[in-house]
Structures are given as C-alpha cells and as structure tokens.
Amino acid sequence: MDYKLDFFSVFSLLAIGQGVFLLIFLTFKRFKSPSYRLLSGILLALMFQLAHDQLVSSRLILKVPFLVGTAHFFSYCIGPLILLYVSSLINKNFRFKTAHLLHFIPFLVYNLIKLPSYISSAAKKLSFLNFYYESLDKNPTHFVEVRGFNDILNGFLLFDLHKLIYVAIAFYLFVKYRKLVLNKFSNIDKTNLSWMQNILFGYSIIWLLIPIERFHGFYGIDSILVSHAGALMLSVHIYFIAYLAFSQQAKPAAMAISSAPSESDTKYFGQILVKAQNIMVDEKLFLDKQLTLSKLSAKIDVREHTLSRAINHELKVNFFDYVNAHRVQEAKALLQSEQARRYTVEHVGIEAGFSSKATFYRAFKKQTGITPSKFQKSL
Fold first, then answer.
1. What whole-number percentage of the chain has pLDDT above 90?
2. SS3 of 198, please?
3. Are residues 92 and 120 in the same domain?
4. Contacting residues for 78 by C-beta, under 8 A, at least 6 apart
5. Are 254 and 89 in contact (CB under 8 A)?
6. What are the b/e assignments for 102-112, b being 16+ CB within 10 Å?
7. Residue at which a domain ends, from 186, 220, 247
C-alpha cells in the first residue's frame, strides 16, 4: 500500500520537531515552574494528536500498527491541563494539589477501558488498517455512511465536548482576570494578558474545528480539505506556542485574584476622585508608563480597593482606561502644539505616557473616535 506524504504532512512533522525542541527547552530551563510544567503537558498532548493524525493520513501508521486505536489517548487530559495552566498564570501562589487529580479521573477510566484494544496483536491491527484504507480508496465517505449521524454525534459528545467545556471555563477565568488587571495597571504590556489571550484563542479555533471534522461528511464538505485544515491549525498553534515561549524573557507575570472590595458611599468616592484628578493633573502622574493603582492610591493616601471602586462606580471605567484618558488629553494637547510638527505621531504618544504605538492608537480612537493621524490632519 502506497504511503502519502504532502506539504501538510511535512509542515506537521516540522511542527512536531519544533514542539520536541521546546519540550526539551522547558524541561531543562523552566520545568520548576508549575505553569511551564503544565504547558509541557499540553504540548505533549497536542503533538501526540498531530503525530497520530499524520501517521493515519500518510498511512505510515502501517509501519507502527501498535498505535492503532490510540487517537483519543489524551482526549480527557487536554481540557484539564488548559484549565490548570490558565489558573497557574492567574494565581501567583498556584501549587499542584491532590484535588487537581480529580480532573484526570475520566482520562484514567477511559484508558483503562481501552487497555484491551491497546494490547491487541499487531496482526489484528494491520488487518483493520488494510480494511480501513481499502474502504476509503473505494469510497471516501464509506465510514460516515456506515456509522450514521447518531453514532458520530455520540463520538462528539464522548470525546470532544469535554475539551470545549474546559476551554470555555478557562476563558471565563481569563475574562475575570483581565478585568482585575485593567483595574490595577495603566500599562498591560508586561502582564501576561496577551500571552493568555493568544493561547486561548488558538485552542478555541482548534477545538471549534472539531464539530466540522466530525460532521463534514453530512454536508458535502471535502474530507481532505477538512483534514488539512485541522492539521494546519494544530501545527500553527504549536509553532505559535514555541514562538511565545522563546520570546518570553521570564515567566509571565501573574497576579492573585482577590475578592471584590466593599461598597463605600458616593460622597466619599467623589472626594477621592477630586484628589486623584488634582494630583494626576498637577504632577502628571500619567506620564509614568508603569503607573499602577498602588502608586496612585499611595499618592492620595487611600486604600487601593477604595480608589478602584471610586473609579469603577463613579466614572464607569477601569483604571487602565482612566489613566489612558489623561494620556489622550495630553496627546491631543501635544498634537496641537508647535513642537508636534517636529515629531511623528508615534513619538507624541510615547511623550504622553503610552508604552507602545498600538496602545496609543487604540486608546486615542476609543476616546475620540478617530486615529491620532486623522486628528492631526484635521487641525
């Protein structure tokens, strides 16, 4: 039987190689960190899935028939690993606990049930593979027709819904954490928000492709196209994780989630905001690119929680937007000055306290409805 190697197979094999290199790097450099240990587990599971899929699609699995039936070996492991990974980034005091093992009970139970299949003879597995490929060569939709919609739906509920639920919970934790970070920092470039968001979006795209892969045969979608799309997304995600990991100079900053502060009366909030406004304008604290809620609260001698509640409840914004609103006003003043003609718009943003061009443009457009360049031209 002919083996089939194409661009997608080679691309996937290179991604697996990149993943192996990253695993070695994490093991020797950063394996003491719980978050990087969990990331290593996720990488291992993703690479196994990708390798198995490529062995099947290229028919190289005929050379290693003992792997037949192991496609879902890590199915009940990936979701919990993603959730615990996000939790480890959110909580700087994260530690592995015995209770965490409860997440992996389905993983253990499933593989114990599948054990007889794993240890069945190579001859039996080769016989199945020959039948499988011969059937596909005669009719690419053979197994879709034989199984039927209900059987494939059961497979989706059994193996895939579990992952989607865990990723959804991880996203929920991320959204809560993002809200807390934006209420504490005026510059989020050095936090782990972008890292978490990019990785979670990558997982989401991969897992949202699962229903398409499961049910494409009922809607006339080309199975080869779907297979290539799945392999491509999984490979790109492994490359992306490697890029993020190697570009990080240190472990992503984490911040413990704390409970919401208690309510304070509106009059007191108003007094706090007047003090904050006066010191922000008089001392131009917003020019400090690393200005935090802690720094500002120390300046006006109030508790962080109280200042945060004042900004949230009275101004209906988070601390990040509160500080950036002052920076936008400063940028507008600079853009209207004579000196602005000597500098680029990006330089004006840096002078106004923004840490990057992207943050400056987003904040400026959010406050004014137009970009800094358009604002400058309108003068």
1. 12
2. helix
3. yes
4. 42, 45, 46, 163, 166
5. yes
6. ebeeebeebbe
7. 247
Query: 270 lies in which domain range?
Result: 266-378
* pLDDT band of 49, cuts 50, 70, 90: confident
Q: How many CB atoms lie within 10 A of CB 285?
A: 18
Question: Within 13 Å, how many C-alpha atoms sit on residue 349's CB side?
Answer: 21
Measure the CA dihedral 229/232/233/235, to 10°: 160
114 exposure class (CB count in 10 Å sphere: 0-12, 13-18, 19+): middle
Task: Let me know whether 220 and 368 are in one domain.
Answer: no
Which one, of 46, 68, 41, lies nearest residue 55 by Cα? 68
> By the 8 A CB rule, do 348 and 331 touch?
yes
Cβ-Cβ contacts under 8 Å for 359 (sequence gap 6 or more): 187, 189, 324, 349
Looking at the fold, whether 279 and 214 belong to one and the same domain comes out as no
The per-residue pLDDT for 198 is: 78
Where helices occur in the chain by DSSP H, the ranges are 7-29, 34-58, 75-90, 105-113, 115-118, 122-138, 142-155, 161-182, 193-215, 223-247, 266-283, 293-300, 304-315, 319-335, 345-351, 357-368, 372-378
Distance CA 72, CA 111 (A): 9
The first and second tokens of residue 83, run together, are 């959730």
pTM: 0.72
In eight-state DSSP terms, residue 188 is -
Q: What is the CATH number of the domain that holds 276?
A: 1.10.10.60
Three-state DSSP at 342 gives helix
* Distance (Å, whole) CA 174 – CA 177: 5
pLDDT at 249: 42
Asked if residue 195 lies in contact with residue 252, where contact means CB atoms within 8 angstroms, the answer is yes
**Structure tokens given for 8:** 């997608």
Encode pLDDT of 98-157 as tens digits.
999 999 999 999 999 999 989 999 899 999 899 988 888 888 777 777 788 888 888 888
User: DSSP per residue over 9-20, as a string?
Assistant: HHHHHHHHHHHH
DSSP tag of 160: I
**Average pLDDT of the segment spanning 321-339:** 88
